[in-house]
Write a structure and sequence with these properties.
The protein has helices at 2-20, 101-109, 195-201, and strands at 25-26, 37-41, 47-54, 58-73, 76-91, 122-132, 142-150, 153-166, 169-179, 206-220. By secondary structure, it is an alpha+beta fold. The protein has a single domain, classed as Lipocalin, CATH 2.40.128.110. A hairpin with a 2-residue loop joins strand 8 and strand 9. Strands 1, 2, 3, 4, 5, 6, 7, 8, 9 and 10 form a ten-stranded antiparallel beta sheet that branches. The protein contains three helices and ten strands, in the order αβββββαββββαβ.
């Protein structure tokens, strides 16, 4: 009994911390500055890696893009964004096979419990502002804010990124932390699920925050 109480005390503490940090804000005005040079995102050379967590363990994987572009001037991104191909959601930590948990997990992620891909086949990120960073310990060069669309929710998120312009090519890399509750994804949430469900789930309850690592390559259009 004490073990169960301790487990849920820890879960409640984590939930409180999750809900106080990394909160997205309401959608902002998308930047329309096109005074720079247009670069087209290479969807085949760009990747999004995601990681989701349970009380114990979790899963990670990838998701692809369909298209995107940046408008760049003097090494700074002025505007742009990209479209996410939700049908390409894949898991990387479970061996692939028609009878494996990989197949079942991906199918569940595509279901209405999570991203409802049949109804919402794409997501979207549109830049609202970019601010240069100096002397960042992690090597990031800019702070990027943008409207992230998942399902029928649009929220503004902010994260540091490393932007490199070399000749006719641009790379942009950054990691964002997203609270899935803000996009209407509440399945087995560690913070909003009823107590009876949490007791049943135990350490399989799913944390609210997702880590999304974005690595984009674009070439001058």
């Amino acid at each position: 009994m004490k073990k169960i109480f301790l487990m849920f005390s820890v879960a409640a503490l984590f939930a409180a911390c999750s809900n106080s940090a990394n909160q997205a804000t309401d959608a902002a005005t998308v930047s329309a500055d096109s005074t720079g040079v247009n670069y087209i995102v290479d969807a085949t050379a760009s990747t999004i890696n995601w990681e989701a967590f349970k009380i114990v363990g979790g899963h990670n994987g990838t998701i692809g893009l369909t298209d995107g572009n940046f408008n760049i001037k003097d090494g700074n991104i002025l505007s742009g964004g990209f479209t996410i191909n939700m049908s390409t959601i894949a898991d990387s930590d479970i061996p692939v096979g028609p009878d494996s948990m990989n197949f079942k997990l991906v199918g569940h992620l595509m279901s209405p419990d999570f991203f409802d891909v049949a109804k919402y086949p794409t997501g979207k990120f549109e830049i609202t502002s970019v601010t240069p960073l100096t002397a960042d310990a992690a090597g990031n060069t800019h702070t990027i804010s943008g409207n992230l669309t998942i399902k029928d929710s649009v929220k503004n998120i902010t994260f540091p990124a490393k932007v490199t312009v070399t000749g006719d090519e641009v790379t942009a890399e950054g990691t964002a932390t997203v609270n899935r509750l803000q996009f209407g994804i509440v399945y087995n949430s560690v913070s909003v699920s009823p107590a009876a469900l949490l007791k049943k789930l135990g350490d399989n309850a799913i944390k609210d925050e997702l880590s999304i690592k974005i690595a984009l390559k674009a070439k001058k259009g």
